[in-house]
Task: inverse folding
């Protein structure tokens, strides 16, 4: 099962996605997602210029060896760009292996532990009434777990510019005055049974996060996410000592080495890595197994900049894991439906993999060609004094 060809497809059906297709001489092909939001062309070039030439002629069945070859072979290991490139190769090779076996991918990981994966949606609003309307709409679609994000009263409107990152204003004091009441208002509106989540997006100091986590304890949140910048795990100890509100961290991690201190010290309750940004299924399976030692469950990152291909991969793995927790599901732009035909589906609060061989997601390259790449950036945050903060 030698690799005949591999190519990178960059498209923008409502937002940018980078996809790698690997083809074998026997006629099988598989695809993997390599999207790094805001830095897409760096991964595309990494794959095109450095990885694809080494793949031609390799045995597509050697998934582990190819992972090690690309990881060790780079010498400069890790990082979001290199690991997303490895992830795309890895997921495409798992896709091919499952197609060659004539099985849906979850069968290669030990078979189903569950039939459907519970998921959570994103509710957001410029203000509280808008947020509550969004929550009601999602409840009507069957969601029983909802992430709540809301504009903070008094902060200036974002300054948008098409050519450079939008500039938002951040004020942690204004946020901390507003957030507990916002979360309480939603809890009062939906009752006790809906799982409520909130993402702090790395914006607080340790002591601010500890105070917030303690203040919202009576609301019984499903989790608080990314309370502080992700680089320093030691600060999470302070939050943990202050509060029993569950914590979820890890969407920006690339490596199993990024997670083991958080897991070993039981500083988190949910691990948020995703196949695309944490080295593909080969490494994320290891992370999930490691997390299980401390009863830490998975919550794979599933914002809309994880392509439908990453969802296919994540759902097949989630279907097998004893410690699957919940899958984030923010949805995708409708134009992506034609570009990425897929077997996975949402219904009544759950996601299913489907039974198509492989991970069940394909890319229609003709449809993709109708949506050329559009340079875009994530926003940045500035404080009132003009200095930069974490977005
Ligand atoms: O802001 O994926 O939990 N989800 C998130 C995401 C991230 C984006 C960044 O590209 O924090 O919405
Ligand atoms: Co997040």
Result:
């Amino acid at each position: 099962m030698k690799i005949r060809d591999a190519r990178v497809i960059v498209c923008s059906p409502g937002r940018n996605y980078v996809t790698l297709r690997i083809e074998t001489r026997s006629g099988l092909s598989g695809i993997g997602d390599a999207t790094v939001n805001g830095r897409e062309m760096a991964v595309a070039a990494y794959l095109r210029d450095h990885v694809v030439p080494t793949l031609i002629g390799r045995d597509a069945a050697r998934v582990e060896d190819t992972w090690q070859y690309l990881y060790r072979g780079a010498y400069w290991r890790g990082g979001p760009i290199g690991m997303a490139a490895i992830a795309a190769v890895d997921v495409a090779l798992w896709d091919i292996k499952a197609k060659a076996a004539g099985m849906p991918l979850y069968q290669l990981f030990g078979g189903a532990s569950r039939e459907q994966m519970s998921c959570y949606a994103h509710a957001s609003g410029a203000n509280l009434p808008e947020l509550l309307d969004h929550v009601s709409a999602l409840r009507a679609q069957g969601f029983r777990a909802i992430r709540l994000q809301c504009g903070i009263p008094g902060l200036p409107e974002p300054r948008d510019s098409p050519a450079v990152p939008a500039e938002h204003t951040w004020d942690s004091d204004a946020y901390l005055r507003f957030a507990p009441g916002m979360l309480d208002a939603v809890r009062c509106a939906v009752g006790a049974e809906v799982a409520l989540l909130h993402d702090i997006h790395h914006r607080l100091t340790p002591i601010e996060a500890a105070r917030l986590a303690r203040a919202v304890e009576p609301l019984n949140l499903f989790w608080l996410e990314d309370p502080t910048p992700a680089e320093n795990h030691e600060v999470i100890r302070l939050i943990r000592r202050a509060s029993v509100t569950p914590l979820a961290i890890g969407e920006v991690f690339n490596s199993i080495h990024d997670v083991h201190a958080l897991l070993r010290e039981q500083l988190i309750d949910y691990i948020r890595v995703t196949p695309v940004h944490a080295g593909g299924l080969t490494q994320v399976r290891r992370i999930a197994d490691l997390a299980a030692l401390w009863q830490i469950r998975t919550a794979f990152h599933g914002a809309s900049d994880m392509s439908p291909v990453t969802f296919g991969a994540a759902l097949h793995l989630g279907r097998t894991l004893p410690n699957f927790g919940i899958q984030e599901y923010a949805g995708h732009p409708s134009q992506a439906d034609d570009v990425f035909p897929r077997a996975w589906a949402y219904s009544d609060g759950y996601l299913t993999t489907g039974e198509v061989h492989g991970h069940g997601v394909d890319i229609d390259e003709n449809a993709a060609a109708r949506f050329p790449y559009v340079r875009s950036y994530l926003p940045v945050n500035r404080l009132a004094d003009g200095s930069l903060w974490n977005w």
